[in-house]
Amino acid sequence: MPWSTRLSAAFTLIFLLTLAFRPGPAAADSLAEKKFEGGALLRLIPLRTGHRPTPRCMLAAEASCFSFVDMVHTAFLVEHASGTRFLIDAGLGREARRDLLRFGALQRAALDYQSDLALGNWLGRLGNPPIAFVLLTHLHWDHTSGLGDMQKPLVLMAPEEKDLLEALRPDDFTTGMRHHFAEARVEAIAWNGEPWGEFEHSHDVFGDGSVILLPLPGHTHGSTGVLLNHVEGRRLLFIGDATWSLDGVRLPSHRPAAARELVDMDDEAMERTLGRLHRLANSDRELIIVPAHDGDMFEKLDRWVRTGTFPRKK
Q1: Which helix (DSSP H) or strand (DSSP E) does residue 231 occupy?
Q2: Are 171 and 179 in contact (CB under 8 A)?
Q3: Rounded to two decimals, what is the model's pTM?
Q4: 169-176 contacts, C-beta under 8 A, 24 or more apart
């Protein structure tokens, strides 16, 4: 048996041994009940659609294997001061369990999760607010599943990611699931903005500096970060799966080797992106970095949003 197959099997076995029951998410407040204050341009509601308890070293190889964190599946509902509402990723939808069955047995075991609320149920709980568009960090199934819960959503993604979607084979479920986009209108953004720090280019979604897209290639060719300015006086950078946990940024640390082989498209680009994020985190202490799957970071962000008590600027 090749070493990569043995590593993948070991990776899957450790994931299976960590499954345990955990309570579902707390109810979200309605956007309509919140007010823009202090010059804020954006409001935010984190939405958790699934989770599984996982050793930290399964998310970032250099982290502890004796400490656990929930690997969460998420979407984030954002409202601009203009009233425009959009999502960062779509999380897991109502058909996610059926999607999981499309994978082989080993992949299915590694990707299994405990359900919270599907995206469609979250949106229903929030009064079915109109969603202008979805900003997609990348093409993987657990970030696009919820598109099926929406009516003809407009999906914005990097041009490199749109190229991946257009070239996607029907059976290449590891890269993405074409049927998630059956009713979607897909548009590529243009990397037409100025460089931002070490990032060569950017895209200003509203033209007012409130939502800036940044290239984070490596996990996929068009992986994209979403920078939100002016959320309760803070700046947040949503990095999708550039790392699965904040440990990956802080240490820094890649995913375990078996996971990298399965899910990362470009090792050299991933190395550059991880280095940039690590240096950014060290140089900009006021920036809050949010990986899509870090349960600890999600819980903090959810608490800060619900209580209006974001940590003070340093």
Answers
A1: strand 224-231
A2: no
A3: 0.89
A4: 173/99, 173/102, 173/103, 173/141, 174/103, 174/107, 174/140, 174/262, 174/263, 175/139, 175/140, 175/220, 176/139, 176/140, 176/141, 176/144
Output the tens digit of pLDDT for each of the chain's 314 residues: 444 444 444 454 444 444 433 444 444 444 444 454 544 589 999 999 999 999 999 999 999 999 999 999 999 999 999 999 999 999 999 999 999 999 999 999 999 999 999 999 999 999 999 999 999 999 999 999 999 999 999 999 999 999 999 999 999 999 999 999 999 999 999 999 999 999 999 999 999 999 999 999 999 999 999 999 999 889 999 999 999 999 999 999 999 999 999 999 999 999 999 999 999 999 999 999 999 999 999 999 999 999 988 887 66
Q: In whole angstroms, what separates CA 304 from the centre of its chain?
A: 18
CA distance 15 to 259: 12
CA distance 139 to 168: 10
In sequence order, the β-bridge partners of residue 193 are 202
